[in-house]
Amino acid sequence: MYKVKSFNIDHTKIIAPSVTLIDTLTADNLTINKYAIRLCKPNEWYIRPETMHTLEHFFALEIRNILKDVFDLSPMGCMTGFYLTVLCDYKITDIETAITECMSKVITANDIPAANILECGNYKFMDLADAKIICKSFLNKNSINIFL
After folding, report:
1. Residue 99, CA distances (Å) to 58, 88, 142 in order
2. Which stretches within the chain are classed as H helix?
3. Distance CA 107, CA 139 (A)
4. Rounded to an integer, what distance in angstroms lies between the CA atom of residue 78 and that of residue 47?
5. What is the DSSP-derived secondary structure letter of residue 108?
6. Which of the chain's termini has less CB crowding within 10 Å, N or C?
């Protein structure tokens, strides 16, 4: 039986914040890389769903303005970070820099991208103020655990 790769990782040893290459698939001349962008230490802290939804809107848009060949950016179900899938090779530092730039955009934003009835299936389920607190803490290298 197939076991999801992330289920084979000892989550007690994951460091947060961190960016990790967790999977690579090569087909023909195409390389697909999946990165785990971990903002919180698993099983200790998590980001509230409304805040995660807000960050998802910002990251999904902004990461595509910074990196090329982004296929997908999705929140982790455990609410501790995101998965980023790209159609090329990036250094971990490239991903870290892109996330830092995305978080800077959150901090200065007055509105959430695509937070409206036409572009989002749950547009009222967001929290920009909390997203700004998360990003400021992350960028100041403080513990993110204060947000539980």
Report:
1. 10, 17, 16
2. 49-66, 92-108, 128-139
3. 10
4. 9
5. H
6. N
> What pLDDT is attached to residue 7?
75
Closest CA to 128 of 115, 139, 119, 140: 115
Q: What is the mean pLDDT of residues 55-70?
A: 95
Gap between the Cα atoms of 71 and 88, Å rounded: 10
The Cα–Cα gap between 142 and 35 comes to 22
Structural domain harbouring 58: 13-138
pTM of the entire predicted model: 0.89
pLDDT tens figures, 80-99: 999 999 998 899 999 999 99
The residue among 16, 21, 42 whose CA lies nearest residue 85 is 21
Residue 19's DSSP bridge partners are 37
Residue at 112 is within a domain: yes
Quote the CA–CA distance of 33 and 24 in Å, as a whole number.
Answer: 5
- Looking at the domain assignment, is residue 106 inside a domain? yes
Dihedral of alpha carbons 121, 146, 78, 19, sign: positive
Does the residue 33 lie in any domain? Answer: yes
